[in-house]
Amino acid sequence: MDPVLSIIIPSFNRADLLRLCLSSLKLHAPANTEILVVDDGSADARISETALLFPGVRAIRLARQTGFCTAANVGIASATAPIVELLNDDTEVTAGWAEAALACFRDPAVVAVAPLVLQLDEKGLAAGVAPLIDSAGDEYDCGGFAQKRWHDRSIAELRPGVAEPVWGASASAAFYRRDAVLAAGGFPDDFGAYFEDVDLAHRLNRRGGVALFQPNAVVWHRVSSSYGRRPSRAILVQQSRNEERVFWRNVRGTGQRLRYLPRHGSVLLGKALRRLREGTLAPWLQGRWEAWST
Q1: What is the DSSP string of 170-228?
Q2: Domain of residue 238, residue span
Q3: pLDDT grade, residue 1 (50/70/90)?
Q4: Is residue 110 in a domain?
Q5: In this predicted structure, what is the pLDDT of residue 229?
Q6: What is the pLDDT of residue 128?
Q7: Residue 253 pLDDT
Q8: Over the stretch 170-229, which tens digit does the pLDDT of each residue have?
């Protein structure tokens, strides 16, 4: 029987987190789910070796580190199910998360589903603190910035409900209709990582696809695992560069640019002042310059 869901986990050198992610999948994934781990050139093939500890999990090893986008694209191309979910290796799923999301795809117009992604703070949970939301889908302002819906709000504020339309899904745990992603060109390989899901959401939206937020599909995310609480200079440059690229790639035509460039200028000024206060203005400016000069 062909799988109904393919789960794709790009991973590089974080075997400990991958083990936790796969353990949660083995507990909660629906029957007949394909699980693909894309080993993004990890040292000593440690990611592939970890994946193979879990029966039924398939590892795809890349010869060198390529970044999230290329690894995700390789996984999507290799998947055999009509619906794929991208998972960060620092996520853990919960009972019923996939079934709730898959039900949304009964509508053929739906091309993406954003689960409710919660910040995994084990100390806070042990102390009885209500978890904070990492994302409930993505939003985009044509002035040139994206944001996670309901980010850092308490789950206590969330009203249980049914799926609702949303601009896009965050690729840390997003479900996609595979054919729609392939038709839209997949993730932009040259981004490496960061804002790649925003760029894809633009293209899916232009093609008339619908994205939904499904609050009953719950995923935990160790949000500081990717780069820690203080990102490196290289990551700050990459984030700034990709965010600016998204604007110029997707705000198209003379009319749109004339309409949104003044707002974009205000957004850039506000971000520059914030980065100045944070002490990260130099890498932020470098990233913008790299976006404008390439």
Answers
A1: -TTS-EEEHHHHHHHT-S-GGG-SSSHHHHHHHHHHHTT-EEEEEEEEEEEE-TTTTT-
A2: 233-293
A3: low
A4: yes
A5: 60
A6: 85
A7: 86
A8: 999 999 999 999 999 999 999 999 999 999 999 999 999 999 999 999 999 998 655 456
Instruction: Let me know whether 168 and 243 are in one domain.
Output: no
Number of domains in the chain: 2
On whether both 176 and 42 belong to a single domain, the answer is yes
Residue 228 within any structural domain of the chain: no
Q: Are residues 206 and 238 in the same domain?
A: no
- Residue pair 42/121 in contact (Cβ under 8 Å)? The answer is no
Residues of the chain with pLDDT > 70: what percent? 98
Q: From 172, 192, 221, give the residue that closes a domain.
A: 221
Which residues have a Cβ under 8 Å from the Cβ of 215 and sit 6 or more positions away? Answer: 116, 136, 158, 160, 161, 162, 163
For residue 26, being part of any structural domain is answered with yes
